[in-house]
Amino acid sequence: MRLLLDAQVSRDLQHDSGLSAPDYDVLSALTSTEDHRWRLTALADRMLWSKSRLSRHISRMEQRGLVTREGFEGDGRGAVIVLTEGGLRAIQEAAPDHVASVRRHFIDLLSAEQIEVLGTVAETVLAHLTADDEDEDA
Questions:
Q1: Measured between alpha carbons, how far is 5 from 110 in angstroms, rounded to an integer?
Q2: Which residues, given as ranges, of the chain have pLDDT below 70?
Q3: What domains can be seen in the chain, in order of their start residue?
Q4: What does DSSP assign to residue 48?
């Protein structure tokens, strides 16, 4: 189910906005910060990607004018990814259709009770997975 749902929502996103799911994830993360910037290493961690994979993806997004890359003050090797006006416009235009796709293919198919149960299940699984991550870091 997850794979089919992800594939359908990704197809809709690409068709409606020209953005890939990873593009949307990066832009969404950047809009979640007050200054629309995120350190590359932290963003890679958030997306569960390697730094090199994200760096290559960011390069493609830079070519399309969605983001820019700046040096990180105090660390010559670090980079900060910054949302451009074009990137902000792209996610603002994509978001309503993306939300509609998620609703059409998932949320609107479920009853209020099913959504509540799903929330409880998600919280349980996330608590387990984040506890495992914390145990590995210790």
A1: 14
A2: 74-76, 132-138
A3: 2-105 (1.10.10.10)
A4: T
